[in-house]
Structures are given as C-alpha cells and as structure tokens.
Design goal:
349 residues; 14 helices
C-alpha cells in the first residue's frame, strides 16, 4: 500500500485518458464510426491481451478457472459501460474536449465513486473514522471541482456565437451534447462496478503468481470485451447506414495508412488510462473506491489543458477562463486530500 504512489499512477492514467482523442484529430476523410471502431480494436481487444499476456502468468488458467458468475457480471457491466464509451466519443464530437470531458466525467465520477461502497455496505463504517471522513471529503471536493469546470464550459457556451462555436468545434451542438454526456457519464460508471465485481478474478490471478500491481489485467480483458461488443455493433450499423464501410479498404481522398496508424495510436493511449488506473487502485488500500474520483479528476485536468492548447476557449471571457483554472486547482487539491485519507487509513486511523 502506497497511496501517494497510487495518486501518481492515477495521474499518468488521467494524462492518457485526457490525451487519447488527440490522434483522432489527424484522421482525414473517415467517418466517425470508422476511426472509432479501428481505435476500439486496439483499446478493447489487442492491447489489453498483449499487456495481460506479458504481466499475468497462466492467463488462460486464470480466466478459465474464474467463477462464471463473476465473468458474466464483468462482461455485462462492460456492455453497459460500452454504451458510455460509445457516447463519450459523441460527447467529444458535439462539445469538444474541455466541455465534453467536464460534463460526461462529472456524472461518471459521482456514480462510480459513491455507489460501490454503498452497495457493499462499507460506507457507514467508513465515515466513522477520521481517515474515512477525510477521504469522503476529498471525493466531495473532487465533485465540486468537476462542477466548477462544468460551469466554466457552460459559460463558454453562452458567451460564444454559433459561428464562433462552429469555427472551433465543427459539429458543436450543446443541447444534443448535454444529453449525450449525461447518458455517457451514467453508463461509464459501470466500469467501476465491473472492477468491483471482478475482484475474485483478480485474487485468483494473484494466487497463481501475478504481482498485485497487475492483478486487474485479466479483469480488464473481460470488461473491455463487453465494451467492444456494444461499440462494434453500433459502429457496424452506422457503417451500413452511412455507407462508410469502404473507409477501411479504399484510400480515395483518405490517407489509408496514416489513418490506421493514428486510430491505432489513439486506441493504445486510451488503454493506458486503465492500465495505470488498475495499477494505482492496488496502491490505494482500504478506500480503493476513491480511485475513481482521482482518475476522473486527473482526466478533466489534462483534458482542459489540451482544450486551452487547441484554443477551444478562444473568445471566452477572462472570468470564464479564471473559473476553469480555479476548477482545475480544486481538482488537484482533491487528489491530495483523498491521498491523505488513504494514507491515514494505512495506520488504522
């Protein structure tokens, strides 16, 4: 147990999650569903298996001998989370990096952090200790920071004209993006539930020689297979509907090779978020549920930094920008508070 190392690992995962969409910006003349599916093959199938094979001894034995009920529940939560992952891409499409991340992950952090300890009956016990109170307080600070960033995004939407919004984000539609982000955040929280349901699988991996740092790798394989199922079905439907299936084999005006490279790069970077998230969770100790808030906080921090870099806040007032920066600082403070709470828990306080 090392909560501060856990926070650092979560920060690396947050950087990956906040950055993965950037290579997609280099994809040219492909429909959204085409590059999303190619990236998905790498993020949900190829890279998880490669990482698990390299880090989990007797991987197939771990999976084939795991309780079927846990495998099924993990897969089901993966399917539900896949809906969130699918609509997350649409959130970026309609809202841009900054606002899309803030709204979607705000809902995701709230559901994914609070529900697991309530479900497992540990919430009341936790708030009876000083470390538990500090950890819950840090989670609340995190949610406040997310809300502040979201308010900054909403102010930006009110300040810019439609022409300015379209100049920065070609398909900007706030109302559609808002509801998509709501669905995305709610369903994306199912990933946290999937990890909780997969603990027997992770424990089996450890019993067969896997170091605790990599114990979640086989769990990710099952959850992400569920997520891939949802996204594959929807993207194929869109390929047929939009007649975009030719994207995969015809070059035309699209640079076929570089489109595959950038889509694969985006998918690989995307998986790194959960690879480091899984590693960080193992270091958080008794209150490992707080990992979800930390993860969401770092994603919003880095996604907003990228939003500034890509000038998504161009034309916004200095007041709005100050609000967003303040929100980012609150999020950073929240990770420190949560880390402190987990650290005190290691001493039984």
């Amino acid at each position: 147990m090392n909560p501060f190392l856990g926070v650092f690992l979560h920060s690396v995962g947050g950087f990956a999650a906040g950055s993965f969409y950037i290579p997609f910006k280099k994809v040219q003349n492909w429909a959204w569903e085409s590059y999303w599916l190619v990236g998905g093959f790498f993020s949900w199938i190829i890279v998880p298996w490669i990482v698990a094979i390299l880090t989990v001894p007797d991987l197939l034995t771990v999976l084939t001998g795991a309780p079927l009920i846990n495998l099924g529940i993990c897969y089901l939560f993966g399917v539900l989370w896949g809906i969130g992952g699918l609509t997350f891409g649409l959130s970026m499409r309609y809202l841009g990096i900054s606002l899309g991340y803030a709204l979607a992950l705000g809902y995701c952090a709230a559901f994914g952090t609070v529900i697991p300890p309530i479900y497992f009956g540990t919430f009341i016990e936790m708030i009876g200790s000083a470390s538990g109170v500090i950890t819950v307080g840090g989670v609340l600070v995190c949610l406040i920071g997310i809300a502040i960033c979201g308010c900054g995004g909403i102010l930006k939407e009110r300040e810019l004209s439609e022409a300015q919004k379209k100049e920065i984000i070609k398909e900007f539609e706030f109302k559609k993006g808002f509801w998509v982000a709501l669905l995305c955040g709610t369903m994306s929280a199912c990933f946290a539930f999937g990890i909780a349901a997969g603990k027997p699988i992770a424990e089996r991996a450890v019993s067969l020689g896997t170091t605790s740092l990599w114990m979640n790798s086989p769990v990710f394989i099952v959850i992400l297979l569920g997520g891939f199922t949802t996204n594959f079905i929807w993207c194929v439907i869109l390929n047929i509907k939009n007649r975009s299936s030719k994207d995969y084999i015809e070059s035309g005006k699209a640079p076929l090779f570089t489109n595959y490279i950038f889509s694969a790069l985006a998918g690989t970077i995307w998986y790194f978020q959960f690879m480091f998230y899984g590693m960080g969770t193992t270091k958080m100790g008794k209150y490992d549920f707080s990992s979800w808030s930390i993860h969401m906080a770092f994603i919003i921090v880095f996604s907003n930094i990228w939003g500034f870099y890509f000038r998504e806040w161009k034309g916004s007032s200095s007041r709005t920008i100050r609000i967003v920066i303040f929100g980012i600082l609150v999020l950073i403070v929240s990770t420190m508070v949560i880390g402190l709470g987990n650290y005190l828990a290691s001493f039984g306080k």
